[in-house]
Amino acid sequence: MMNAVFIESHQHRLADEGYCVIEDVLSAEETARVRNHLIEAAAESERRGIPTRIETLDPNENNIRVFNLLDLDPVFRELIQHPAALEIVRHVLTDDFIISNFTANIALPGSESMVVHSDLAVVLPEPWHSPWSMNIIWCLDDVTAENGGTLFMPGSHHFERLSDVPDDIADKMTPVEAPAGSIVAMEGRLWHTSGKNQTLDQQRALLFGYYSRSFIRPQWNHNVGLGEEAQRDLSPQMRRWLGLDITANVAPLKGIPDSRQSE
Ligand SMILES: O=C(O)CCC(=O)C(=O)O
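Above: query sequence and 2-oxoglutaric acid SMILES. Below: predicted holo structure tokens.
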């Protein structure tokens, strides 16, 4: 893995605009490897009966959504705890975070924008005073305005209530552009949507590692999502981040076993 540097200019940009791009986190080879695994994971998800096209999420059929990435391939279990990702997450959320979800969205040519939203608003009612969640977006392709780069309204992470969101927010959006191998760090309160992929032949594959403060219910129930194989080699720290221990929202208690004992 290459060294990512989450330097002061990134931190300022994240604080001021609600997102920042950190380039060269993955090498070209690593990016290609993860991308190949994503394509296999999408096919495996379909085989398991978890659809990769979700009508209520996307306006047409040109998006491939892959859920439950953490169960589908160890490469995603590595990526969700990549040191560069965790450095940024800790910077925003402190050490008190959990892994809420890990999904992919491949925007194919012809895909349209989804509904404008903030990811914190999806898991927490207003008011949104604090940066209590964030997305680490892994760019597996070059992301451009033309191929569906995520659209952000810079500064909208300062909106505290739904009534602060302008009616014409869709007209105030800026597309993110980032080379493959970058991370786009997005504060959970930033209002955004997927861009339209207006190219004829370019796919835009992004992974969304979603982290939140520990007191917010995760989007995904990892106890159901993760099978035996995926759980086998998890570190105690990963089990805690995924809420797999018997103590969830209390500190580990001496004498209480982490997992269910056989009766
Ligand atoms: O694919 C994108 O660019 C954004 C996706 C997104 O915001 C979501 O799935 O909630």
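The chain is about 25% helix and 20% strand.
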